[in-house]
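Here we describe the complex-level prediction in full. Unlike the single-chain runs in Section 2.1, the two entities below were treated as one system.
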Amino acid sequence: MLKIAGLEAWYGESHILHGVDLTVHQGEVVTLLGRNGAGRTTTLRAVMGLMGKRRGSVLIDGLETVRLAAHCIARLGVGYCPEERGIFAALSAEENLLLPRRVRGVAAMPLEDIYDIFPNLRERAASPGTRLSGGEQQMLAVARILHTGANLLLLDEISEGLAPVLVQKLGDVIRTLKAKGFTVVLVEQNFHFAAPLADRFYVMEHGRIVERFEQAELGSKMSLLHDYLGI
Amino acid sequence: MTSVFGVPLPAILGQLMLGLVNGSFYALLSLGLAVIFGLLGVVNFAHGAFYMLGAFAAYVGLETFGMNYWCALALAPLAVGILGIVIERLLLRHLYQLDPLYGLLLTFGIALIAEGIMRGLFGASGKSYPVPDALRGGFNLGFMVLPIYRAWVIFASLAVCGATWFLIERTRLGSTLRAAGENAALVQAFGINVPLIVMMTYGAGVALAALAGVLAAPVVQVSPLMGSSIVIVVFAVVVIGGMGSILGAVVSGLVLGLIEGLTKVIYPEASNIVVFVIMAVVLMWRPTGLFGRESP
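The structure predicted for the assembly as a whole is:
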């Protein structure tokens, strides 16, 4: 589904990713762990084609995308939820929800189904996007890419700054998506949110993948994770 | 005879009407500037030049090909819009990552070149463009005669401004434009071809300027300098309305045209500076302009 090899990326002059290798199979949930500044967000941005300069290989469904523009990558069925949520102030909540283009992938989730999952969004549909509470904005950011029909979801810190009840709700949403066959890449600071969800974990440090292991190995890797992440 | 402040009422109404016609041009021009600034972040100094080219396209169309006014109204904005698209593709798009000053300098240079070329071809003196037959004459309103052509200018400008406002504030394409003005990279990551939208928007904004030029051709002298004389006032209008605000551009365009007209009656000496005095006052009171959003 997604196969990254030797991916390098730059922010202006500074070299952030130094050869990332990562594979996500169809229907898997994979979590990128690491400290702040390890390059996890940059990895997602580089996959999306949002970095000024990138090199290496990013195969999506077997197609090389490293030279494609961001909108062409999205149209292959990739949905991106940025860390800063990216809710547009000039658009109402519903306009935010309807903004992304339908893309190749699975059938788009109908608006009604989305509102059933996130009932708050139905009530706030006409409000300007940034008038929503932090939690509602996060729901909106996730809901927004479900409506596009993307089946590869790149979710950056979606649990950040949310009340525990909302974090639990997002966990349920991810499980539902996984059951429906979506492929998900999570970047998470909140290890306890990500741990039960993921099939596989990658640990990043200094712009490289330094460790990878499966869900079943989680117990035996805890002390190692403690060293890497301080958890 | 009725009078206000010792000025006969018909004179006041006549100037108000002229002010409204000027205000219609201000509104159309500042609308295009606002749309372009909102999405591209470029202060399009060439806007007056595109207005002038629109008027000349109508003039040349008539003189050379016998093209009538109504065809010019459709074809001149199309031709100038395509020129705008070519300029965007070849030059302007390389500057989006840089300081806005570069875009301003480039478009200022384009304006000077366009003006110079047209002076070389047509000389500096004004050409006259006839009022189309269907719009000759006037309505007698009892207290004054309203020339049909000027009424048409006001109507056409309001209709175009209204349609543009609707397009941007109430349609799906408009919501995409507004979002791209906020965060173009993210909109592109949602599968939308932002570079294409930017190109078309510049073309459309420029076409609006050319449309204003065609509308103005029968009421002003068609001259290479007509753009630079209006564009400074239009920039003041945009600053007063709030950079990038559609509603602000239209409302302040019309209102400032009226105020300018009124000043011509009450204190003619101030009529050329009144817009700039208002701009200074507005900037002291609200630096983002009357309708401007605080930048987040």
